[in-house]
Amino acid sequence: MSCPIGLFYGSTTGNTESVAELISEQIGFDKIHRIDIAADGLDSLSEYEHLILGIPTWDFGELQEDWADMWTILEKAELQGKACAVFGLGDQIGYSEWFLDAMGLLHDRVQEQGAVMVGYWSADGYNFEDSKALTEDREQFVGLAIDEDCQHGETQGRVQQWCQQILNEFGMS
Fold this sequence. Notes:
Rossmann fold
C-alpha cells in the first residue's frame, strides 16, 4: 500500500468530490488515495490504515445513491480498530430538519463495524433545526460539516482546520 489514508466518497452533483479534492490537497497526495465509490466501490476499504469517508445528505435525510448502493457491503466491512473520520455535505437552510443526517448514518454504520471514530467537529457557526450527525450532547458533529449551498465561503478554512485535526488524531502530524 502506497498511501496510508483511503478517502472514499460518493458525489452526485460534484460538491462532495470537490471537498474530497480539497482534503487531498491539504493532507498531501503522497499520504492519501481518493476513491470515488461509484467507479471503484468499497473493495479496497480494508487495505488502508486510516479512512476518511465523505457523503452528502439528499432530500429529507437520505443517503446519497452511491452510498445507498454500497450499504450492505459496508455492513460486512472489517473495520475493527481502524481510525476513521467522516465528512458530510448538506443544506442547513433548505433541509434544516435533516441537516447532515446521512453523515450521522454513515458514522454509526462504520462505528458498528469496529472503526475508531475521530474528526468530530464543533456545531458552532451553523444554523439548523435538527441532525442525526450530532453527538449526544449536541455540541459537535460526528465529522466535518460542510454546507456548500449556504456557507461556501467557510469551506476552505474548515477543511484546512479539520485536516490538521484528523492528522493529529491519526498520529500522522
